[in-house]
Write the structure tokens for this entry.
Amino acid sequence: MVFMIDNKTINQIKEKALNSNIPIITDSGINYLMRYIKKNKIKKILEIGTAVGYSAIKMCSVDDDIFVTSIERDEKRYLEAIKNIKSVNLDNRITLIYKDALDVKLSEKYDLIFIDAAKAQSIKFFEKFSVNLVNHGTIVTDNMNFHGLVQKKEEEISSRNLRQLVRKVKNYKDFLVNNNDYDTEFLEVGDGLAISIKK
Ligand code: SAH
Ligand code: MG
């Protein structure tokens, strides 16, 4: 039996995040991820980039024996995430770590790692946490289209800072394509998901 999580509360968390310009995952992105978790019987998840806990709560809600560990470096968001996770009674299944992910060292293994933090650091996150992935586990990366900017011509992006970030996302894409330890598929779901399965 799946323990029911109050959908009204989850929707309030989502609306509040959207109104505060917190970049939570899109509906189609999270729906895909939830189906993937169910189909592949994923039980242990590591998330890089909690924000206010929205995606962690949704992933955890797929089944009542799913456990999520999630890392966030922004204090305000971390505190809000703690509050949100308590409000849906998931504090026994979601563990939050308030730290820069690049300074976190974990010894446990996870069935799925969801990378959704600073887009310029994706290669570092992938390399650092791949040792925490089970054999044949999956690394999912969000925002592979970087809010649609990856498909644009460079000269169409006026900010130098943004152009550099877009280049980093493209580098990360090349890194995934050329990584022979993983089979990666790029999906046009939400803001673009990369699904990398360890061989
Ligand atoms: N996964 C969330 C959204 C995360 S937004 C959801 O879909 O609901 C990205 C978050 O990553 C931001 O809150 C940002 O503070 C955090 N972040 C960025 N770089 C980080 C790092 N190096 N370590 C920890 N958190 C980081
Ligand atoms: Mg995202």
Remarks:
- The domain at 7-198 is CATH 3.40.50.150 (Rossmann fold).
